[in-house]
């Protein structure tokens, strides 16, 4: 069992407060991703869970036991670092079994656990090699294997893919997901990469300036962000956030955009006449037709990004930019005038001042 509970965690380095009253529950067997920009406190929070940083106030519990004052070796955790942290003079087998050797486990038992883990990670042909003879992806798998052989209650991953190239990142990311499915061990994973967060996490915790902005399942955060920070941080291409003003028409709210377009927001939004808002629509929820047309946003394409499987259109309207994304290929090119048609059911409305989400009334 490996549940993790953080109770009102605060951390200060002298006069600088870096973690602010963080409370978080991670269930046994859950894969939880801590994500945020540089300086958001995600790595500090992971190190607090590991026991590598002391808390200023608050408590850390693992399996229902208060471990706040315990050293790392007594917390039943194993950590995978971004720098691999392998001993260069030891073979792969020796690196993987070193912690078990320090714990006094018999040699035969160590060898068997190393072999089992190496088989799982497809490292068997590499057991007698030194780290310098391995690729970056192989070194990271050895680092993961060293954690797995210890059979901990909790795995902690500190940006483990940041030193790999793009192709290897995808491969090793898949291996980490597969390992979690097979082992079912509670995992806490730090990254700044929202693709890693969305594909790996069962729970995502978005951090900013040492505070939890929002926590929940990936698609909940993606589709139901609490504010513009969360909405912008998750999703590639990023959500369109267009400055607008609310106009009430027959009891229903509409958004007046800078180019004069009036787009419906639907009934039930807690908006008021003249309120400054940010009209949020994700690129994949923007339709596009050639030429001008009523009921949409007239814009001029200024760039077309075509990856083969995806197509992203960047366009200029009067006073703002809008991006649209498609899976199918379309005969569109820079300089072309188009009409962008948002899916009104997918619009997210935010207060322009606070950035907080303006929601519909529950009965709407």
From TrEMBL:
<dbReference type="GO" id="GO:0005524">
    <property type="term" value="F:ATP binding"/>
</dbReference>
<dbReference type="InterPro" id="IPR047641">
    <property type="entry name" value="ABC_transpr_MalK/UgpC-like"/>
</dbReference>
<dbReference type="InterPro" id="IPR012340">
    <property type="entry name" value="NA-bd_OB-fold"/>
</dbReference>
<dbReference type="Pfam" id="PF08402">
    <property type="entry name" value="TOBE_2"/>
</dbReference>
<protein>
    <submittedName>
        <fullName>sn-glycerol-3-phosphate ABC transporter ATP-binding protein UgpC</fullName>
    </submittedName>
</protein>
<dbReference type="Pfam" id="PF00005">
    <property type="entry name" value="ABC_tran"/>
</dbReference>
<dbReference type="InterPro" id="IPR027417">
    <property type="entry name" value="P-loop_NTPase"/>
</dbReference>
<keyword id="KW-0813">Transport</keyword>
<dbReference type="InterPro" id="IPR008995">
    <property type="entry name" value="Mo/tungstate-bd_C_term_dom"/>
</dbReference>
<keyword id="KW-0547">Nucleotide-binding</keyword>
<keyword id="KW-0067">ATP-binding</keyword>
<dbReference type="GO" id="GO:0016887">
    <property type="term" value="F:ATP hydrolysis activity"/>
</dbReference>
<dbReference type="InterPro" id="IPR003439">
    <property type="entry name" value="ABC_transporter-like_ATP-bd"/>
</dbReference>
<dbReference type="GO" id="GO:0140359">
    <property type="term" value="F:ABC-type transporter activity"/>
</dbReference>
<dbReference type="InterPro" id="IPR017871">
    <property type="entry name" value="ABC_transporter-like_CS"/>
</dbReference>
<dbReference type="InterPro" id="IPR003593">
    <property type="entry name" value="AAA+_ATPase"/>
</dbReference>
<comment type="similarity">
    <text>Belongs to the ABC transporter superfamily.</text>
</comment>
<dbReference type="GO" id="GO:0055052">
    <property type="term" value="C:ATP-binding cassette (ABC) transporter complex, substrate-binding subunit-containing"/>
</dbReference>
<feature type="domain" description="ABC transporter">
    <location>
        <begin position="4"/>
        <end position="234"/>
    </location>
</feature>
<dbReference type="InterPro" id="IPR013611">
    <property type="entry name" value="Transp-assoc_OB_typ2"/>
</dbReference>
<dbReference type="InterPro" id="IPR015855">
    <property type="entry name" value="ABC_transpr_MalK-like"/>
</dbReference>
<dbReference type="GO" id="GO:0008643">
    <property type="term" value="P:carbohydrate transport"/>
</dbReference>
């Amino acid at each position: 069992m490996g549940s993790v509970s953080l109770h009102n965690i605060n951390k200060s380095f002298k006069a600088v407060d870096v973690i602010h009253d963080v409370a978080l529950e991670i269930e046994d067997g859950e894969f939880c991703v801590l994500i945020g920009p540089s300086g958001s406190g995600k790595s500090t929070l992971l190190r607090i869970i590991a026991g590598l940083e002391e808390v200023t106030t608050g408590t850390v519990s693992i399996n229902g036991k208060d471990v706040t004052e315990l050293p790392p070796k007594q917390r039943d955790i194993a950590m995978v670092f971004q720098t691999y942290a392998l001993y260069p003079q030891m073979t792969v087998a020796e690196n993987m079994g070193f912690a078990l050797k320090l714990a006094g486990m018999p040699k035969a038992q160590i060898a068997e656990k190393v072999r089992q883990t190496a088989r799982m990670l497809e490292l068997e042909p590499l057991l007698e090699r030194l780290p310098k003879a391995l690729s970056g992806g192989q070194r990271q798998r050895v680092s993961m294997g060293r954690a797995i052989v210890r059979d901990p209650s909790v795995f902690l991953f500190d940006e483990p893919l940041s030193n790999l190239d793009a192709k290897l990142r995808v491969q090793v990311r898949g291996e980490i997901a597969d390992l979690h499915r097979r082992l079912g061990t509670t995992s806490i994973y730090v990254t700044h990469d929202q693709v890693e967060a969305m594909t790996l996490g069962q729970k995502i915790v978005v951090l900013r300036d040492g505070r939890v902005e929002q926590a929940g399942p990936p698609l909940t955060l993606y589709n139901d962000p609490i504010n513009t920070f969360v909405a912008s941080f998750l999703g590639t291409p990023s959500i369109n956030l267009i400055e607008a003003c609310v106009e009430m028409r027959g009891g229903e709210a509409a958004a007046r955009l800078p180019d004069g377009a009036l787009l419906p927001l639907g009934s039930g939004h807690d908006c008021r006449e003249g309120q400054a808002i940010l009209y949020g629509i994700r690129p994949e929820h923007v339709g596009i037709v050639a030429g001008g047309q009523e009921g949409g946003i007239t814009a001029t394409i200024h760039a077309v990004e075509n990856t083969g499987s995806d197509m992203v259109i960047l366009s200029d309207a009067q006073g703002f930019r809008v991006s649209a994304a498609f899976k199918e290929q379309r005969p569109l090119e820079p300089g072309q005038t188009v009409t962008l048609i948002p899916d009104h059911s997918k619009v997210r409305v935010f207060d322009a001042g606070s950035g907080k989400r303006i929601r519909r009334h529950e009965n709407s």
